[in-house]
Amino acid sequence: MSAARVVLVLGDDVSTDVVYPGRYMATVLPTETPQYAFADHAEFNALLQSGGVAAGSVVVAGKNFGCGSSREQAVSTLKGHELVIVAEGFARIFLQNAINLGLRLVEAPGIRAGAGDELAIGVAAVTNLTTEKRYPTRPLPPARQAIINAGGLIPYTRQRLLKRAGAR
Amino acid sequence: MGMTVVQKILARASGRGVVAVGDVVEPAVDLAMSHENAALVISQFQAIYEGTGLEPTLWDASRIAIVFDHRVPAESPKTATNQKKIRGFVGATGIAKFHDIRGDCGGICHQILPENGYVRPGQVVVGTDSHTTSHGALGAFAFGIGATEMASIWALGYAVNIEVPATIKVEVTGAMPPMVGPKDLILHLIGSLGAAGATFRVLEFHGETIARMPTSGRLTLCNMAVEAGATSGIVPADAETLRYLREEAGVQEAVEAVVPDPDAPYERVVEVDVSQLVPQVACPHTVDNVRPVTGVAGQHVDQVVIGSCTNGRLDDLAAAARIVKGKKVAAGTRMLVFPASGRIYQQALAAGYIADLLAAGAVVMNAGCGPCLGVHEGALGDGEVALSTTNRNFKGRMGNPTAEVYLCSPAVAAASAVAGVIVDPREGRVQ
Question: Cα–Cα distance between B365 and B379 in angstroms, integer?
Answer without folding.
Answer: 14
